[in-house]
Design brief:
single chain, about 90 residues, alpha+beta, two-stranded antiparallel sheet, two-stranded antiparallel ribbon, 2 helices, 4 strands
Length: about 90
């Protein structure tokens, strides 16, 4: 496991990056389930990095009472949709 300092001010924890065995096929961004566990969302770095930047931009805009651009809202909705796909109760 690799430990990476959190960039969130006020949080004094370290994020832990779990290193799993290499998969025979590329794991794509989306809902992923390991065995009988609850599904979760895997975000590939090429998806997660722009999403993280976009979320940080949205947070900064909201913090300063500024409008959030339409493209950011669309990306936020896409993330919400992926997260809701983990709901096994539907």
């Amino acid at each position: 496991m690799a430990r990476v300092p959190s960039s969130c001010p006020g949080f004094f924890f370290l994020m832990i990056i779990r290193v799993l065995p290499e998969q025979p096929e590329r794991v794509e961004t989306g809902v992923t389930r390991f065995g009988g566990e609850w599904p979760g969302v895997f975000l590939r770095g090429d998806y997660a990095i722009p999403m993280g930047r976009n979320l940080a931009g949205i947070a900064a805009s909201l913090k300063h009472g500024e409008r959030v651009d339409y493209g950011s809202i669309v990306m936020l909705q896409m993330l919400a949709d992926r997260l809701m796909e983990c709901d096994m109760s539907v």
